[in-house]
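ESCALATION

Customer reports they have been waiting on this structure for their group meeting. Please prioritize. Original submission:
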Amino acid sequence: MRPTVSGFTQTQRERLAFLELRVFFTGELRRGDIEARFGIKPAAASRDLTAYREVAPSNLDYDSASRCYRPSSAFKPLFEFQSDRVLAWLLQGFGDGLDLKLKQAAPCEGPGNLVRPDLPVLAALTRAMCAKRAVRIHYLSMSSGPKRRDIVPLALADNGLRWHVRAFDRERKRFGDFVLTRIARVQVLDGEVPEAEQLAADEQWARIVDLEIVPHPNVKWPEAVAADYGMSDGVLRLKTRAALAGYVLRRWSIDCSSDHALDPASHHLWLRNPQSLYAVESAALAPGCAQGKVAEEGRGV
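Update from on-call: job pushed to the front of the queue and completed.
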């Protein structure tokens, strides 16, 4: 009788979950990855690989040229990963990526997440990122509807409400953002990706913007706002990529108008240095940003 995951100890299940998570979402796995993550000896890591292949004999193919394991065409996950945990791993590094049904240390609730991306689509995109390959996707745009697009996925980014893929758009010949949940049917394309389409060539991603955020000048008690955000001397200084600046400013409803003209009842914060958004394309998303309007018109979005 073939063994099952439930027959292993919790410690080994965590290692097997990591093994599966890594090969599923990066497209490759080496014994050294398990050793480095869990601080175990090579013999123990080999036992984990053997155990996984006994439970799921059709999931892994060995690539002798690269000396690593890759997901097979018949790959089916053994573990039911939660999308928010997977995304947290991709953003912050592997924790467990698996709901172990542990009791909460203290009552804790959040607003929940209405956006749940399709994990096979996410895995196909992250594998393409790691392999530096272009993909053909079916994308559902709010402005033009469904369309086939050839893109080079480069990075994932969280705007606080949903995830998007930073990618080079081969049709428009520019870097842009694609909402993760609007992507379907990912097909990896053959051929090397030229340097002009890689992340190093994305000027908006490489540029770091310094934001100086203060309580909105028209709020009655600015000290309360300063306390909310842990400001030092009444200022919160943030560094963010130009490609993400607009998302940050919109998420926190920061008034970016030069004369702080927006309603302080819904905008408790003000960007004290709006000039920092000059030529920042994502500023099109920032509340009250004049630079954003110029950028939006120039991009034709």
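Sent to customer with the following note: DSSP finds nine helices and eleven strands in the chain.
Escalation resolved.
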